[in-house]
Amino acid sequence: MRHSISRCSRICITALLALSTAALSVPAAAQATLSEAQALLAQGQRSQALDKIDRVLASNPKDRQARFLKGVILAEMNRLDDAAVVFVKLTEEAPELPEPYNNLAVIYAQQKQFDKAKAALEMAIRTHPSYAVAHENLGDLYAKMARQAYDRALQIDSNNSNAQAKLNLLRDISTAGARPATPTKPVTVAVTTPAPTAAPEVPAVKPVQAASSTAAVAASSKPAASAASSSAVAEPPAKPATADNDQRAVRSAVLSWAEAWSKKNTKEYLGYYARDFDVPDGKTRSAWEAERIDRVGKPGAIKVTLSELDIKLNGDRAIVRFKQNYQSASFKSASGKTLEMILRNGRWQIQQERIGR
Amino acid sequence: MTRTLKHLFSSKLHRIAACAALIVSSAAWAPTGLYAGVSDAGPDATITLIIRDIEQNKLDVALARTENLLGLYPNFRLAHLIRGDLLLARTQPLATFGNAAGAPADKLRDLREEAIARLQGYRNRPAQNQVPRYLLQMREDQNHAVVVDTKQSRLYLYRNEKGRPVFVADWYISQGKAGAEKQREGDNKTPVGLYQVTSVMPPEKLTDFYGKRAFPLNYPNEWDKMQGRNGHGIWLHGVPRDTFARPPKASEGCVVLANQDLDALSTYLQIGVTPVIISNGIEWLSLDDWQNERSALNQAIDDWRRDWESRDVSRYLSHYSTRFKTNDQNFEAWARQKREVTAGKTWVKVELRNLSVLRNPGSQDEMVMVSFEQDYRSSNLNNVAKKRQYWRKENGRWKIIYEGVA
Description:
The complex is a heterodimer of chains A (357) and B (406).
Chain A: H1 2-7, H2 17-22, H3 28-42, H4 46-59, H5 64-76, H6 80-93, H7 98-110, H8 114-127, H9 132-154, H10 159-175, E1 187-189, H11 213-221, H12 224-232, H13 241-262, H14 266-270, H15 285-296, E2 302-314, E3 317-328, E4 332-344, E5 347-355
Antiparallel strand pairs in A: 1-2, 2-3, 3-4, 4-5
Helix pairs in contact in A: 3-4, 3-5, 4-5, 5-6, 6-7, 7-8, 7-9, 8-9, 11-12
Chain B: H1 2-29, H2 43-55, H3 59-72, H4 77-88, H5 105-123, E1 130-132, E2 135-137, E3 144-149, E4 154-161, E5 164-176, E6 193-196, E7 214-216, H6 222-226, E8 235-237, E9 249-251, E10 255-257, H7 259-266, E11 275-279, E12 284-286, H8 287-310, H9 313-317, E13 320-325, H10 331-343, E14 348-359, E15 367-378, E16 382-394, E17 397-405
Parallel strand pairs in B: 3-11, 5-9, 8-10, 13-17
Antiparallel strand pairs in B: 1-12, 2-14, 3-4, 4-5, 5-10, 6-11, 7-8, 14-15, 15-16, 16-17
Helix pairs in contact in B: 1-2, 1-5, 2-3, 2-5, 3-4
Domain Cds6 C-terminal (chain A): 250-353
Keywords (chain A): Repeat, Signal, TPR repeat
TPR repeats (chain A): 98-131
């Protein structure tokens, strides 16, 4: 119960760049105040953060970024109705943005208005079909709705647990940026933890010197016991050496891709996509690239970590499945992902990128 | 993730759903034209459609249909359970029907049993040309008859069309916690036998637990008393406001209907008139077989009447079982009295009016209850009385085992 509720708290704390670009041009001073408000919020000083935001809004009442942040602060202060008003207005003004819909959904979910929450999340997904946070929240919402349906079916009095749920939810919002993305031990590729270039398959958090890359894959998806046994394997791997090398190369490419993303090296990041990459949502390649540069390159530290990596090789093609944890100061997400990769000129490149495993 | 849900139903209920789908498809799809509509054949038809949707892997349709059903019946707990499963299936694989983690096992079991009872009850509805064996001759003023099947958790309503029962409607019911064939006070069982509603209790005399009204039955009847059965307070009644229905085995012996179903049924019930037959597994007859059985019994009754008029006491007594009992007489005392009375008569004329012949449910004894208004005239005595007899088949012949004033 605790788990499913805590997972349903993926509120976006700062809107993505699209918000501010759509707004009127914000003076540098206001931008600085906005950053201060964000910092105060991260420290849990909500009323001070709200003061700052209100100061920004006094001179720039239409600033979407500021209004968005105000909505987040109000939600954290449990002024859910006020927060909902802010986000509803944002969805009306900028229906193409998924974040206000997502946050509106989280508020509705807290108010147990599950049908409205569902509708809002569906709107978020309609605007951005690959918006991972909304997908995850929707999944969590279904679980909550299922729980509610079961309670009605079985006449379980869940009033007490509801009260508990609300507290958990609020705490989760305030710590969303600071909590580790997942309690398991992921393969970490982060700016703060430079990955070794020679052996990128070595997990940064829990170093296990694996005998082969296949063993390393197994070690990353299973806990310590199998990792220990795999490190003891002395025989050569059963698979032919070339396949083994390919596994290693695919793995290396995927981890480097995530590393480039984490470092916000947009040029290197985009370099992992094949020229015939299947651009989502029927966008043009250049529009998609512009959007990615916009999003990946936005200010603030981000960390992309992959876990449970699974590689299926087939000649010069590979299907790679993993759990992707994305974490920035403003929001975090955990989602399954599948990459379809192809070997071209000695480099493994991404041909297709899908949410879900 | 859909597979678990599908398999669960497939294993037990596959045939049911497949079969029922044929019956209801026209009713549910044609008139409304709704993609995920609620069947106008009732909640059980809709549940059947939902299970079919699930088997066909149309989980979205199943969910939409379930939500439409809940729109009609917001307190339908079984539908909430199915909705929970359909929602949960979007986030994780299901291990079982009613995949509510940490739920009370007894409540889950009750809802699973209700699901099976509703699906089976709907699937096993009688064919057009089948009638319950019990309704051999309905009285002219008995507009309707109620037949309950405790095995199927189902109540069937029949219309009297010149003595022939014609199916009107059927509903899901709950029975006693301990099942059917009540013997003793407090055994939490539902009696099996021939009854009628004796009165109606208005809502102001009832707590919410019984719903909006209740119809007491005349359990124990004469036959029950002769069998030494006791207990009291067996009613047809409704359910509390916070639920649409109760589990199949829930009451202390009463027959319980959804409030809306009881509302519908109550418009047909005539106090003191409408037969309520409770059976532990209805025996269905084709109309031909029913007609044969009915003719044989009507013949036996008419033979008895004519032998009475003949004043040949031996022939008259040949219609009575040696185990015959009336209020305070056994067969010998009865025979002696009949011989004495008949000796002084020069003529006897007997006319039977408003005849009803109802077969007692259960296979232990082949028994029918015969009720009529008896217009008796003779050279020295005339009287008109309402009578009730129990006839039993002994060595292939129908014999009277009880006779009394009704």
